[in-house]
Amino acid sequence: MKTFNVPRRDEVSNTNQVLFDSLSRSLGMVPNLYATMAYSDSGLARYLAFQGGKSSLSNKEKEAVNLVVSEVNGCRYCQSAHTVLGKMNGFSESDTIDLRAGLSLSPKLDALVKLTKDITETKGRVAESALEAFYVAGYNDGNLIDLILQISDKIAMNYLHNLTQIEIDFPLATELAPAKI
């Protein structure tokens, strides 16, 4: 299989160099997965615009979604990055592990993560009970659309890392034990 290297600032287009500088200022680094998107002259800008769009989901809800989707898709990079980001948004280490397993002690967040897991595993062909629980928890149709968009954001990054296997530049997330059947 092809080996992918993380492109350096001097190896990317001028447009991407500006984005690298902006990411460095705001995050203190250019995450390797973002840098990998700079192989495309338009991919990084396009992704950042999509990711930065308005959403009815809170940052905490978005991080819960990111953790669930990354676990379902087996993306170690995103599991690790979103464990860090989840903690920055108020989750404990054990919360991040529970979320990756599709669970939350908060009834509203639990409905969100269960539907997220179901959507991701079934490619949108969810159990009626999961969708109903989402609405009963207080979410609405607009939240459902924003949930689908958040899932699609994370699937793109999961697939990018799963394909490229670029180096993980975040502390590695705890691996979950396989579910007992």
Structure explained in plain terms:
The chain has nine helices and no strands. By secondary structure, it is mainly alpha-helical. The chain folds into two domains: about 10-50, no CATH class; about 60-165, AhpD-like, CATH 1.20.1290. Helix 4 packs parallel to helix 7 and helix 4 packs across helix 9. It is globular and about 50 Å long.
Q: How many domain regions?
A: 2
| CATH second-level architecture of the largest domain | Up-down Bundle
Strand content: under 5%
Mean pLDDT: 96
Please specify the SSE layout and strand pairing.
Layout: H1 14-27, H2 32-37, H3 43-51, H4 59-72, H5 76-88, H6 93-100, H7 107-122, H8 128-136, H9 141-164
Summarize the structure.
The protein contains nine helices and no strands.
Keywords:
181 residues; mainly alpha; AhpD-like; 2 domains; 0% strand; globular
